[in-house]
């Protein structure tokens, strides 16, 4: 996993197959329908296929950890606090 800010980026190719639990046999699969293409573009999910059992489905490329959720909450709080302070300063001088 590669640390990338608030989330960890992972490579689903090295994960276990959800159907047969084979490790390292997942391969990228191209999106075949319009629905699959939209899901691939708009979400952090991609299509994968197992070479051993033929399972085909979505796997995420990112994972959230407890620490990343805590960091997100802290950042949101800080942004809200700064926005409030700037708003009060603007009201005072306007």
In short:
The protein has 94 residues and is an alpha+beta fold. The chain is 39% helix and 23% strand.
Q: Let me know the average pLDDT.
A: 84
Global Rg: 20 Å
Please describe the biggest sheet, giving its number of strands, its sense, and whether it closes into a barrel: 3 strands, antiparallel
- Secondary-structure element pattern, one letter each: EEEHEEEH
| Distance between the amino and carboxyl termini | 49 Å
Helix content estimate: 25-40%
Spatial order of the strands in the main sheet?
1-2-6
Number of domains: 2
The number of helical segments is 2
The secondary-structure class comes to alpha+beta
The coarse silhouette is: elongated
What does this structure look like?
The protein has about 90 residues and is an alpha+beta fold. The chain folds into two domains: about 1-65, no CATH class; about 65-94. Helices cover about 40% and strands about 25% of the residues. The protein is built from two helices and six strands. The chain has helices at about 35-40, 65-94; strands spanning about 1-5, 5-10, 25-30, 45-50, 55-60, 60-65. The chain has a three-stranded antiparallel beta sheet with strand order 1-2-6, with no helix packed on it. Strand 1 (about 1-5) and strand 2 (about 5-10) form a beta hairpin. The protein is elongated, with a radius of gyration of 20 Å. The mean pLDDT is about 85.
């Amino acid at each position: 996993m590669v640390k990338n800010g608030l989330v960890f980026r992972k490579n689903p190719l090295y994960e276990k197959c959800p159907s047969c639990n084979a490790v390292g046999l997942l391969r990228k699969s191209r999106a075949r329908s319009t629905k699959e293409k939209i899901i691939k573009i708009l979400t952090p999910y991609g299509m994968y296929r197992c070479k051993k059992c033929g399972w085909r489905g979505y796997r995420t490329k990112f994972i959230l950890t407890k620490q990343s959720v805590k960091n997100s909450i802290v950042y949101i709080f800080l942004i809200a606090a700064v926005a409030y302070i700037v708003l009060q300063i603007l009201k005072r001088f306007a």
